[in-house]
Amino acid sequence: MIEGKRGFGCSRFREGCTFVIWKNYPDKTVTLTMAVALAEKGATNKLTFKRSDGSSVKGKLTLADPGTGRLETVMDV
Questions:
Q1: How far apart (Å, rounded) are the C-alpha atoms in residues 76 and 16?
Q2: What whole-number distance in Å separates Cα of residue 54 and Cα of residue 52?
Q3: What is the rounded average pLDDT for all residues in the chain?
Q4: Is the dihedral of CA 4, 21, 76, 53 positive or negative?
Q5: 37 to each of 1, 7, 40, 45, how far by Cα in Å?
Q6: Where are the domains of the chain?
Q7: 54-75: b (≥16 Cβ within 10 Å) or e
Q8: What pTM value is reported for the model?
Q9: In this structure, are residues 38 and 61 in contact, taking their beta carbons and an 8 Å threshold?
Q10: I want to staple 69 with a disulfide (CB 3.0 to 4.6 A). Which of 3, 21, 50, 52 is the partner?
Q11: Mean pLDDT along residues 53-74
């Protein structure tokens, strides 16, 4: 994995690898530590997300598609 200005991507991009985890995710900036956790474990540690009403909720970012790096937010219920 390599870090670019806008994301963390596959070091084999010249060979056609399209995996990328974008740094800007709604309400969160993905850090190197978070990107490594996503790539290795498939999820971040628990994070705090702000709701539109100003309250907060705990959840995780998960790697929804390991082939492309697409993320999803999974909130605690």
A1: 36
A2: 5
A3: 90
A4: positive
A5: 12, 14, 5, 8
A6: 2-75
A7: eeeeebbbebeeeeebebebee
A8: 0.81
A9: yes
A10: 21
A11: 91
